[in-house]
Structure to design on (312 residues):
């Protein structure tokens, strides 16, 4: 392997339930260090309104990471969406790391099987192809799409596929006959899978970082919009590699149509505004979505996105 792979796990703690999940994550990443030669780190963000007892417990749990030389970063109230930028910033500011021939992968620690050798091999394969093909970023292609209850699942799928269209032609999904996911994800792609890799030696890596930094001054990237901006911006700056990676679960946070509106509203404040508008206003995209989802639901999501952009 001619590169060093730095793997960052992100997790947001807001209550006892998500703290309990963090305990499991720490145990699993400690096991993973004995399975592969990746450099692991954990990026944890937590709600400032939590009790002092829960906050103290976070620090105590995190100490277990030191045993296996796993670095951890604790942030307060930043939001999971800004984690991509924070990881890039920490990586670039760490003078002990050689940026040349280094790759970064960051993923939602509660969604993927960290200590499963099959999962780790898929991460390695994605990183290897990303490096050899000289792409800017790599994305997982989820083995199943879990986004909420029946209606919200469909609304979120439609919203995500509009973003996938916006990333064309750079986003190219992997083909697999046994992959049981909605047809649009097979044909158009999986744009915001919660697992992202970056090639730090790519000539546009710094430009991507600067773009996120500049636009985070204009828009709130702390929530879901952070991931959406990242993939859109990257698709304008370099090629994208994808790899089908098994997802374990997708713990549900509160998500409703207001979140869809907020994502688009925040994107409309950035330099990716027109990229998104072009995708949502495309009649070809609309006709494609109508063939795969109820027309009234496609119209509903399209109108939410366009109306949220008009608010800007």
């Amino acid at each position: 392997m001619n590169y060093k792979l730095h793997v960052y796990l992100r997790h947001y703690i807001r209550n006892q339930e998500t703290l309990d999940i963090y305990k499991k994550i720490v145990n699993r990443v400690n096991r993973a260090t004995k399975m592969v030669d990746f450099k692991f780190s954990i990026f944890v963000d937590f709600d400032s309104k939590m009790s002092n007892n829960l906050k103290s417990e976070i620090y105590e749990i995190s100490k277990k990471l030191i045993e296996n030389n796993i670095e951890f970063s604790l942030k307060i109230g930043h939001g999971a969406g800004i984690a991509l930028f924070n990881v890039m910033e920490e990586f670039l500011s760490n003078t002990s790391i050689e940026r040349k021939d280094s790759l970064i992968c960051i993923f939602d620690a509660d969604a993927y099987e960290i200590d499963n050798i099959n999962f780790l091999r898929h991460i390695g394969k994605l990183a290897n192809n990303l490096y050899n093909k000289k792409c800017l970023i790599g994305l997982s292609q989820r083995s199943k799409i879990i986004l909420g209850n029946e209606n919200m699942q469909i609304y979120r799928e439609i919203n995500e596929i509009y973003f996938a269209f916006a990333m064309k032609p750079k986003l190219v999904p992997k083909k697999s006959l046994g992959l049981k996911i909605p047809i649009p994800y097979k044909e158009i792609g999986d744009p915001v899978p919660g697992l992202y890799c970056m090639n730090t030696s790519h000539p546009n890596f710094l430009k991507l970082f600067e773009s996120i930094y500049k636009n985070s001054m204009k828009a709130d990237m702390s929530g879901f919009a952070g991931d959406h901006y990242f993939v859109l911006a990257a698709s304008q700056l370099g090629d994208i590699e994808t790899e089908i990676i098994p997802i374990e679960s997708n713990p549900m946070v509160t998500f409703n149509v207001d979140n869809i509106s907020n994502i688009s509203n925040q994107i409309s404040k950035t330099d990716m505004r027109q990229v998104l508008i072009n995708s949502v206003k495309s009649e070809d995209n609309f006709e494609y979505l109508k063939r795969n989802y109820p027309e009234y639901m496609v119209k509903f999501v399209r109108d939410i996105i366009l109306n949220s952009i008009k608010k800007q």
About this structure: The beta strands are 4-13, 39-46, 71-76, 102-108, 137-142, 195-199, 240-245.
